[in-house]
Amino acid sequence: MAGEKPEAAEVKESHPLDKYLRIERFPHIFCPGCGIGTTMNVFASAVDDLIKQGKLNPNTLAVVSGIGCSGRVAGYLRFDSFHTTHGGAIPFATGLKLANPELTVVVISGDGDLVAIGGNHFIHAARRNVDLNVICIDNFIYGMTGGQVGPTTPLGTYASTTPYGNYEMPFNLPHLAVSSGAVYVARWTTLHTRRLKDSIKEALVKKGYCFIEVISPCPELFGRHSRIGKGLDMMRYFQKYAVVEENPDPFKADIDFSGKPIICGKFVDRERPSFLETMKNFMDKSLEQTR
Amino acid sequence: MQQRVILEGMNFWQGDIAIAEGAIAAGCRFFAGYPITPASEVAERLSARLPLVGGIAIQMENEIASMLAVIGASWGGVKAMTATSGPGMSLKMEAIGLAAMMEVPCVVVNVQRAGPSTGLPTLWAQADVMQARWGSHGDYEIIALAPSSAQQCFDLMIDAFNLAEEYRVPVIVLADGLIGHMTERVIVPPAKEIEARLVPRKYTKRPTNDFLPYKPYDGSLVPDLVKAGDGYYIHTTGLTHDERGYPQMSAEAQERLVKRLVAKIRNNAKKIARYSLTDADNADVIIVTFGMTSRFVKPAIEEARRQGVKVGHLRLITVWPFPEWLIEELAEKVSGFCVVEMNLGQIFYEVERCARGKARTVLCGHAGGGLYEIEEITKSILDASGAKLKVKM
């Protein structure tokens, strides 16, 4: 305040969210401008809120990742964390959750891992409505292996395996998740940190298969290949083209990176008994009949 | 509904059912699988039985998912298994490597059929022996057991789960389509007797703030386990890792970790290996069998003996680890080995390797699907002894 002597800035040795990170593993492998760190930060912050509200026990939170840049997230979070095979996070998480239903199981991985090599697992876990939270950090490219085309790479993008431009139509992930049976589907970009945090909090306490797509910059590979540019340029693109809608139509949520709006928001938030609830219901009914 | 967990007493089961019941008796409470001939009956039986004894059976979207779900369930604190056959086994191999690397106790049943590829789905073979040992990439060691009767299908499932817990490895049960679908008498011992034999999971007693998940504190080669939710905040990965479970991309870390993974089986091979060796004293020939071939050879052994050849019988119960020392020792004493296996040479090459040229080695094998003529086995025994054949082929 004017006239008052400013207090000396307090030097903090650690960040309040450090307790959720395996700080001894830092520096992390993520490139400058990458959105994975932002997503991890928002996740830790969402978890912190829920723990403080008594809605989540950190001891029973398990994080499962697959392979790739986003697959490394499990290795940096200080919870029971599992770094599995390429595409294998969801079925691994399914076994973990069914073996111990007390756990809150979160899958954090990338687009290539979850919907290319793991695509079959993605749709079947949604169909079964296993009680999982799947966070897909979608950066539109294979980052770790050097910028190859992925299942969400927009048409025409020059990737290292599409030197003439990508000629395959990309997945529209909210549409895929909604039509596969997910009970909660949302999409945000890494600019929407507050809304992303709210979504993660909603998903973590909701029963059933919840899916959140995080549109994330990959300046080193996707940014370069798509000519969108560096991290800041990609964030500017999100700022310009991301549109937050109330009850958006998943059918219209495809992304082209050519000026079409990136539709963000909560696509569905519906109730359907989870795998374990359905199993119990059918068993009870069946055994009642044979009694 | 009150459901008996262990079906004590006399039962009349096919091998696949005995496998399922053996698993339940061993404490298995999670099954994930995918339909495949001739292993589907394991999944069907467990789908009916597991939910009634407090377990879960789930049919996954494919074989890869089944294996991964088993690994996940094991980290969740439950004894877990899957069952499959040739093509499914090939698909599971990457995840079996993950189980070896993460050191996850679990059991994988391979009811072998003739391959390669789709092969003969309804007919048997024993041609996945080397796959069981070497199927996933990289250096690692596993344990594999081969049952030769429905009774053994039951009994060896208990051993398989025990060994998986003791050594923190995936254990493979190499059954085959013949035994899987053959119905026989199975005597289930009293539940108390079985339960007394079960090896509990080696959960750590260390405090949460002083525990490294890949450090064997007890001086053994097998680290203590924890399960998700215990408050240890463990990290585990398929990447080469240090004692904290953290990735370490170095030749040194690789050397330390993979040498331990291999040593925990190799150094204990004599303790783990199980076999039966009969009539070996003064034998001219040792006939080597495992699984179903153990039962075919009896009339041929009798015929060879009538012709003056002293025949001993080595029946492998664990095919991996392979009892190398035993073959080396026997090779000093006998004229030859006759390996009877339903493939074109797998254990045969192990026997040949360990005999080191000191004894003849003869393979009596086929590509799978059919049965043996007694005469061809007799001929192979006589060949191994160096004697001339006196029977008409």
Query: What ranges of chain B have pLDDT less than 50 throughout 5 or more consecutive residues?
Result: none
First-residue to last-residue Cα separation of chain B:
59 Å
What is the annotated CATH architecture of chain A?
A: 3-Layer(aba) Sandwich
Backbone shape of chain A: globular
Main sheet properties of chain B? 8 strands, mixed
Q: CATH-wise, what's the superfamily of chain A?
A: Thiamin diphosphate (ThDP)-binding fold, Pyr/PP domains
The CATH class name of the largest domain in chain B reads Alpha Beta
The CATH fourth-level homologous superfamily of the largest domain in chain B: Thiamin diphosphate (ThDP)-binding fold, Pyr/PP domains
- C-alpha-based Rg of chain A, rounded: 20 Å
Alpha plus pi helix count of chain B: 15
Give your account of this protein's structure.
- The complex is a heterodimer of chains A (291) and B (393).
- Chain A has 291 residues and is an alpha/beta fold.
- Chain A has one domain: Thiamin diphosphate (ThDP)-binding fold, Pyr/PP domains (Rossmann fold).
- Chain A is built from ten helices and eight strands.
- Chain A has helices at 36-52, 73-76, 89-99, 111-117, 119-128, 173-180, 193-205, 219-226, 231-241, 275-290; strands at 61-65, 80-83, 104-110, 133-138, 184-189, 210-215, 242-244, 262-269.
- In chain A, strand 5 (184-189), helix 7 (193-205) and strand 6 (210-215) form a beta-alpha-beta unit.
- The longest helix of chain A has 17 residues, at 36-52.
- Chain A is globular, with a radius of gyration of 20 Å.
- The mean pLDDT of chain A is 95.
- With 393 residues, chain B is α/β, with parallel strands linked by helices.
- Chain B has two domains: 9-197, Thiamin diphosphate (ThDP)-binding fold, Pyr/PP domains (Rossmann fold, 3-Layer(aba) Sandwich), CATH 3.40.50.970; 276-385, Rossmann fold, CATH 3.40.50.920.
- Chain B contains 15 helices and 16 strands.
- Chain B has helices at residues 15-25, 40-49, 63-75, 86-102, 129-134, 150-167, 177-180, 191-197, 251-266, 269-272, 293-296, 298-306, 324-331, 347-355, 374-385, and strands spanning 9-14, 30-33, 56-59, 80-84, 106-114, 120-124, 143-145, 170-176, 183-188, 235-237, 275-278, 285-290, 311-316, 318-320, 336-341, 360-365.
- In chain B, the strands form three sheets. In chain B, strands 2, 3, 4, 5, 6, 7, 8 and 14 form an eight-stranded mixed beta sheet that branches.
- The chains are: A alpha/beta (291), B alpha/beta (393).
- The interface between A and B is large, with 39 and 42 residues.
- Strand 2 of chain A pairs parallel with strand 10 of chain B, so a sheet runs across the interface.
